[in-house]
Predict the structure.
Amino acid sequence: MSEAAIEEYGISKKALRLLKAARPLYKYPNAVYWIRKLLGDPLLLKENNWNKDYRFAYLLTGGTSFSPEDNRAVGILLEDLYQYLEAYVNPSGPKKPMIWSEWNLSNEILRAFDVNAYIPETLAVLGHLGGTDAALKIIEEAENAGLPPEYCSAAKCAVGGYLLKESPRPDAILTSSHPCDSVVSSYQALENLTDAPMFVMDTPYWKDEDSYLYYADQIYELIEFLEKVTGQKMDWEKLRQVCRTVNATNAYLQEISEMCRAVPAPASSLHLLFHWLGRMACFGSPSGEQYAKIMHTNAKKRLDQGKGYLKEEKVRVIWYDVPVVFEILHPWMEKEFGAVVVADFIGRIQQFQIDTSTNQNMIRDLAKTHMSVTMARQCHGPAEFYTQELNRLIEEYSPDCFIFVRHQGCKGGWAAMKLIRDQCQKSGLPALFLSTDIFDRRVASSQLIREQVANFFRSNKLA
Amino acid sequence: MSTKLKQIQEIAGAVKNPFLEKAMEQKKPVMGYFCNYVPEELLHAAGFVPYRMRAVGSTGTARGDTYFTAINCSFVRRCFDQVLSGEYDFLAGAIVLNGCDHSRRIYDNWRDAKKSGLPAPEHLFMLVAPHVLRESALERYEKELKKLMQGLEDAYGAKVSSKALKASMDIYQKRHELVCQLYALRSQKIPAITGAEMLSVLMAITAVPVEDANSLLEKLLAEIEGRKAASSDDIRLMLVGGCMEEPEHIALIEENPAVVVADSLCYGARLLRPPQKDEAKEPLAALTRRYLFHPSCPRMINDFDRRKEALFDAFNESGADAIIAEKLMFCDLWGGEIFLLRKEAKERGIPLLGLEREAYGGGEGQIRTRVQAFIEQVQNAKARKQQAANGKEAS
């Protein structure tokens, strides 16, 4: 694409406009609820020229399933996402260092500095807020520049976003060796293209005390690196406060994850998935905690009343893979089949609490939490990290079936496919292995995916 | 053809070879390993014959595909196919490394296969090498090597003393020096050995006891001195990539008026682990540094600049005219590396051809055409450059 043809932050600006329009609306969560109910089906069922610019946002925020109280929480997190985008699209006030951070890293440390954090892969999700073709445009830009097509589409979005001038220029980059080769490789490309200094967390393969200590030592090195590139001193008290917020947030979210073991489930993994997006962009923020708290209160209330998230829960799904972000299927599955995703791969939280009593303990426990973040937890290490968690879900969540996405970028997952299939087979439950991608709609169309899911439910007499 | 080269090609062309069989008759256990970050010296000091795992002679992926899928690396699928066929039943054990997302799963899948009664050695190990170069990673890597040593001792009673390790390092240092001599013969004005032959040599020496490897190398060096394996008009190529173990593939490239004079391959320059300047006296610490800081591959995240400089230095020193950079399908690591190398080569005005292929996967016709066209391009550019230089001289 020629230089002249590129509008800086074109996609982000569009997403920002949508968030700007949605913000005042969410001050009235009841109204949002009824508007959604009224508009529901046309938005839900099929993309058309009329709805393509905001259908994604509608699906991501629960379609017609979220209650007015749930919508209140959504509004809070939308505000965070708005601020995140605004910080680099329309920066105001004194200039702060712009630090890029890979999407599977936890950003507590960054929040303890006076910097702007930017997560390159979030463009793959937030880009959809600017219309469903946005992510594809970014992916194609990366491929046209010569990036390997087999890269994870998130990695392509990270590089393509920079090439398309959707990303702010970084003053420094933070990345890690997890969860996959696409990250390992794409950040070398980003370092080279941006010429920014980069720090790499070398994620240990195992999860034992020795590995946590190795990771903790690297956090100290990271702090040193950040102090050098920003010219600031790390604010330990600020970090302590962030860690307390993270502890509270994780506790709420983890309990929501656990409450979903109840039949009927008082929450859906979509509540957690939406927080995953917020988490990437604004982890450790008070709004994130507030979102988690409200969602937790709502779920707990339903649990205490013996009510489910759905009026009539018919199918309990374990979605143990990445979601299909370009076509969030949850609201459709809920409405069409009474199917609720009770546990998933990305949104489910399994975390440690961080001991904030001393700086040393805080860093030690941050190492543990970083290595337990979604994807770092399951993908980096032996296959047991993946299969043992799946096994726990099978035992604890009373599932009726499994859905796997077989995201083409996840080579490590594909290489363990027999082990996963064996586990599904052992459980005696039906499993659907979709062949699609997390962000790239060229791999399989929305219609095809829905057909496969519908046929799966019907042929297994689940619906 | 040199008799030693012929013998070497026979060794490289099969899973087992007479040297290995002789060692096994002498009750020397053979330890299979994947990747260049597994120190052969350490295994040798523990009494094993280190054997680099390969897919040579592979006829398909049917068994391998029961565990891996069509979007996994063809080398891994083929090698694992042979594992499940029992072709590696002579191994006393095997060490898998977290080299990439495909190969690291061999450790998981092989353990599972073993539980199902499929062919597997008694002990399987996972060695974890850091993905970064820095002092703290060095410490971590040394710890991992100590864990591996402990594992070998627990499983086989194979204790490694500092003295034994030092002795093994000396033997491997000799191999390193002999290979360097071979590299020098390859990069001279008229190479004494072709790229295809070189690959066979490097495959052979990683499949036999190191003592035999050194003897083979000495004899080979004596035999090929003064040999002219190419023409002075041939286009001189540098070959870059990851796993490549098919000499016939390089021979296909060299069918053209071209010869490979330098490389950056797993079975290539990355086998060279020169002693490091600031290496410790204690053998394990020295070995750790040697392996972590040896020419890296794209699995090392913070080393592209050093890697790139080493690559272009080797390119310049060998007098190469162009680069062919190759990757196996579905390899993210080499896909990204070629993206970057293409950019860097362009800035330096170096012609670079990127090729994608499947291990033992055929596709000769397409590769032949692409390479042929590339060589012609390089020839023409070289001729134009020469003409321009002549014109300047005449005026």
User: Anything to note?
Assistant: Chain A touches chain B through 47 residues (CB under 8 Å). The first strand of chain A starts at residue 98 and ends at 101.
